Amino acid sequence: MSVSLYSLNEVELTEQLAVLDEKSYRARQILDWVWNKRVESIEEMTNLPATLREKLAAQYNLHRLQHTKTQGSEDTTRKFLFRLHDGRYVECVLIPASPALYGAKADRRTLCVSSQVGCAYGCKFCASGLDGFTRNLTSDEIAGQVLLAEQISGEKVNNIVFMGMGEPLANLPNLLKAIEIITAHWGLNIGARHLTISTSGLVPQIKKLADHHQQIRLAISFHGASNEVRDRIMPVNQKWPVEDLMEALHYWNARKRQKLTLEYILIKGVNDDLDEARLLVKRATAARAKVNLIPYNTVEGLEWERPSSEHCRAFHSILKGNGVVSTLRLEKGHDIDAACGQLRLKQEKAEQ
């Protein structure tokens, strides 16, 4: 089976070219064709000798994800459904600038990227894991979402959040390889400070990421300030309860300059009690974190409901009144199956 050129960094490609008895500078030329000029065939790499192109074609490929469907919303948010080589599907969402997204500027376009097919962590409010976990995405499948989203939209992505399908830190090796490709000058050349990784609370992996040399941002899918609430909706909390998670966030803060974000989906009658808001103030203050409040996005097949706008604002006012930097995101894309995994599930069920 041939190797994807999208999966190789400069060092790996240089080493493999040496095996082919080719000069090292050819690696830069090839990567320029792949990530800058974005050709779709090796034959288009016209500054390479024909003999080298023949060698590459015999062992490597430029197979991309296949664009299957786009859903667009009135506010220009778009969700893309991509088909993988094995027939499974992943989603990513292109989001226009919003003040709620980490101080986004007016010209910022954020892409929400998936890291797994399905999810094994079973958060009770999330569509990603409804059909279980299938597999990790490879590094080229992760980075390939950015490449294809830019091609389809005709727009440059300048902010990436790993908040799509799956638990990114459960696929840490492939995630970090994809991030190397995304941030490299020979790759997509997007600065690490414009990348945010979201996790449901995998404590050991948070610490590993804290020790990683790049200044990547971290967002915690918090969704409950107490163990009682998180135990009810997030099984991961039974392995790493709030106290362990908070200790990992202190470890992060000791090693990173980037401010943490606590993501908090407001679910009616579950985690939207105003006492929970007061406890969230304490957690956010201790972690020196911003809070991003998101009213629940209805998922077909799940029982949860979104609170009223008035109640969401009351919850938000407690955070603001206690000095917590926070936003209430009246989220974009509510009309396009925006909850992670919904579009993918519909497509796979239609093919069964």
Structure description:
The chain is α/β, with parallel strands linked by helices and 352 residues long. It has 2 domains: 3-61, DNA polymerase, domain 1, CATH 1.10.150; 66-351, Aldolase class I (TIM Barrel). It has 12 helices and 14 strands. It has helices spanning 10-19, 25-37, 50-59, 139-153, 172-183, 203-210, 227-233, 236-239, 242-255, 274-287, 309-321, 342-351, and strands at residues 3-4, 60-61, 66-72, 78-83, 89-95, 110-112, 116-118, 133-136, 159-162, 195-199, 217-221, 260-266, 289-295, 326-328. The protein starts with a strand and ends with a helix.
Question: At the fourth CATH level, what is the homologous superfamily of the largest domain?
Answer: Aldolase class I
Largest sheet: 10 strands, mixed
Mean pLDDT: 91
The parts where pLDDT drops under 50 for at least 5 residues are none
Query: What string, H for helix and E for strand, traces the elements in order?
Result: EHHHEEEEEEEHEHEHEHHHEHEHEH
Instruction: Report helical residue fraction.
Output: 25-40%
Under CATH at level 1, the class of the largest domain stands as Alpha Beta
Summarize the structure.
This protein has 352 residues and is an alpha/beta fold. The chain contains 12 helices and 14 strands. The protein has helices at residues 10-19, 25-37, 50-59, 139-153, 172-183, 203-210, 227-233, 236-239, 242-255, 274-287, 309-321, 342-351; strands spanning 3-4, 60-61, 66-72, 78-83, 89-95, 110-112, 116-118, 133-136, 159-162, 195-199, 217-221, 260-266, 289-295, 326-328.
